[in-house]
Amino acid sequence: QRLVPVGGALGQLELTAGLRHFHDDIDQHGRGAPSAPLIEASSTAKANTPRLLANWHVSDTLMTYVSYAEGFRSGFPQDPPVLDAFADFPAVKPDRLKNYEVGAKGSLFDGALAFGAAAYHIDWKEIQLNLSVLMNNVPYPAVVNGANASGNGVDLELTLALGGLRLSPFVSWNDLSMSENIVS
To answer: Which pTM value belongs to this model?
Structure first.
């Protein structure tokens, strides 16, 4: 497996930029009990998320890169509650993250050994968490927006080709931690 530069010669810098636009309108309708009034909930989430990538093709078997990307997950109203006491449970707000990454991919021995290594940092805002929330002393499963989290991580991968056999071990480690405690 050899790296083939897209759109250019070896030693060339490749720049890629992209933008995604999200617009989600979510409506829910339901009843807590057969005789209960119809419960309606809705939410709208919008976001523009960029991605920037710079690849450097060092040789025909080695490429390094830096990347910046933003992620977005829509918010939503909570499921129509089982009991009318939960009718005012708040909608979940969107959560967002920013990812900064640097890495390298390459191969050795005419492609018999391929490798990849990446180090990254994530900043995650208003994380959507599945929790058990007490309402009127009854535990109710719900999704709530938690605190922020951030941390670093590393991904390492190898692919060893031996005839028709491929071995592909992968190791990932991250140290993402919440900025404050979440009470469930």
So the answer is: 0.76
